[in-house]
Protein: DUF1868 domain-containing protein
Organism: Pantoea eucrina
Amino acid sequence: MATRRMLLKGSLLTLGMAALRAAAAEHLPHDVGRKFDAEGGVLPFAGNTLICHLPQQGEESHLFDALLDVYRELPRQAWARCVTALPPSSYHMTIFGAADDRDRHYPLWPAGLPLDMPIAQCSEILAQRLLQFRLGEDAAPYRMRVNPAEPAATETPLTLRLLAADAATETRLRRLRDRLSDVTGIRAPDHDQYQFHITLGYQIAPLTDAQDLAWRQTLAHWKTQIIQRVPVFTLGNPEFCVMKDMFAFKRQFYLS
């Protein structure tokens, strides 16, 4: 009888632990299991994209230098263990997110291309299309600035929202995104509401209320410092890049 009670108790304990794990999994950040594991390790996320890397040398490297200071300070934050920081070499502003191995469904996959096409072949086809593409009046320079607004209540760390520094840049970037959507056959649901940004890290663990408040306060402080140092920064022409994961975006060519 005692043995049966012990077995029943063990079974209930196992079921209880399984329920706790399932509940915890439901509350994991969106990119855990997609781009990173629950310990913060990078996962495969093959694909292609159109971005502007931040200049790391020369007169236009001031923003990169300011973000290096953020990178240096990040490990000292109480909420840092809930975030995987991206390597500074990967810092970029996305112009147009193209195709990736995880989101194989239309309209996030190029129209007319089979959903089971190898991602390398998809990248080759998009590359050939984009080599024929001409920026024309939508070419760089793109003058941008950091958005000082507080992140939305649903936003997670660590993203630096951006704004066009002038109406002409905003017009060219929005028109360019429309044209790239046409040539790639991809149009994300948020295409018209897309917010330009630089991703500095990804949340990989739930935040307490105190941690959520802390990262928002820290980000506001960092943004104030960045805006003072770099009121406006300039980016060059978009690069067609391929990636294996979120740690590196390999430039194939500049759009021209």
Observations:
- Strands lie at 47-53, 83-85, 92-100, 142-146, 159-164, 197-199, 201-203, 233-235, 239-245, 248-254.
